[in-house]
Structure formats: structure tokens, C-alpha cells
């Protein structure tokens, strides 16, 4: 929600400072906010889960009490302890069972299995993975995190391949074909307002309807609206193109906008949340850069067919999400992570 509020603020400043030399005001406002953010970061507390994971339990409890506004945080920290010890305990128990079943050692197990990798060795390898520190450099090497890592990458990268940022980048030029510069600036700002309301709606209904329904219905709506936008621009149907701009944002904001960020925190347990989230955010910005720098060159080469590229990306991502994204509503992070084993 803070991201879309920032987008709305930028559109509003742009509307007010779109004449003469005043465009520099919008750049100055961004610089001012960046400096303010840099100062405030110094006062931000460290993540309590991170502190707990590093063995700094008293600090974690202090920060958690401050954030939650309650004195008793034992029930929450208990889930973190269970998450850290549960998987390793389960692997250890399975390793003991394998050893009991194969008293003659790993070589016998391998012979009985037709020369495959020994079961005991598999269990030992999983124990080593569970005990490893999860970083951005090894998260994709750990089997239980590989699938959610790939899904988070596709969620964030695919969000940008939907073409949503082209709507914000070039909506004013589309609207100026029908309206004056002043009115088109206002209408562009209203796109930001719609984005805020759609995201706020998602915050209200996501726990009621679930992540998957919001994500998949949002992608479906974008397939239709992006197609209409391409048709409107290609056939010079200005009204259809203008309406489609709003339909694209109305489809995106309640689902494909916020849900990838939400799932990015829910598909990993506490050990991998930081590394997984970092990869997801990097994929999002890389996708944004690729779309921003390639849209105009593609538009010059293939014209409005560039929107067919966005539609194809939406369909491909939607199919993958339908098949592989689990529903996370009502489940703890630890329960969700167990489903990827």
C-alpha cells in the first residue's frame, strides 16, 4: 500500500509541476524523500525473526514487544523455535529409521536399490542442508527452498512482464490524444487513485478469499484489459484505449500488484525469508528495468503487437501459478514451507 501511495504522490506532484521549469520540483521531492528515508532507517528496529535466528533472543523479544504492543510474546516465539527444530528433528528421525532398516551400512542399501544413492546418505545430506545458514548465494542449492525460490522469482519478474508500468509511464501520452494537457494530467493522477483503492481493497479481502483466487482472477482480468488496450491503440480507438488503461489498473491492483509481495514472505520459513525476499525484489526491479528500456524500441519495431507480448507473459505466468502456487490463507509460514519438501 505504501508503494502505491508513493506512486500516487509522484503522479500528483507531476500534475502540479508539469509546466515550464517546474518539472524539476518532482525530482527534488523524490530526492528529499530519499534523504528522509535514509535518516529514518537509522531508527528502524532489526527484524525480531532475524535476531531470534541469530541467537539474540532477548533483543528479539524486546523488539517484538515493541512492535506488537503486548508484553507476552511467548506464543509467537514458540512457533519460531518449532520451525527451527522441527525440520531437523524430522530428518534425524528418518535417518535413524533408515539406519535401522539397513544395519549393514549404506553400501548394502545401495545394492538393494539397484545402485542408487544410499538412503542413509540422503538423510545425512538433508540434515546438512537443514543446518546450513541460508543466504542469497545458497538458497537455490537447498532442495526444500528451490521450488518456492523459483516461484517467487517468477511472481515478481512476471508482475513486471505484465506491462503494468507501461500504463503508468505512457498513460498521459495516450490521454493527451483526446484531452488537453491539464485534463490528461488529472486523469493520469486518477489512475494512481484507482491503484490505491484497488490495493486497499486487496488488504481487506485477501484473508477472506485467499491469495490464489485474487492472483489468478487479477491475471485473467489483465489478459482481457491489456488485449483491449492493444486493440484500442492499434485501431486508433482512443476511447477504448483510455478506458482500457483504467481496466488494466483495476485488474492489477487487487491481485497481481500486492499478492507477489505477500507470497514472497509466506512461501519461505524464517530461515530463508530474508534471502528469498531479496531475490524476489531483485527480480522485480530487473523486470521493471527490462520493460522500461525495451518497450519503446519494441513499439517502434512491432507496433501495438508489443501488447501481445505482455498478454503471452500473463498467460504463461498464470498457467504456472495455477499449477504450482499453493494457497497460504490460514496457514503458518512453517506449515507452508513444509509443503515444498
TrEMBL record:
Keywords on record: Membrane, Transmembrane, Transmembrane helix, Transport
Entry's localization field: Membrane
Gene3D superfamilies found in the cross-reference section: MFS general substrate transporter like domains
Top-rank taxon: Eukaryota
Sequence segments annotated as region (Disordered): 102-124
One Pfam family hit: Sugar_tr
Record-annotated Major facilitator superfamily (MFS) profile domain positions: 1-329
Listed PANTHER family: FACILITATED GLUCOSE TRANSPORTER PROTEIN 1, SOLUTE CARRIER FAMILY 2
Protein name in UniProt: Bifunctional purine biosynthesis protein PurH
Organism from which the protein derives: Coemansia guatemalensis
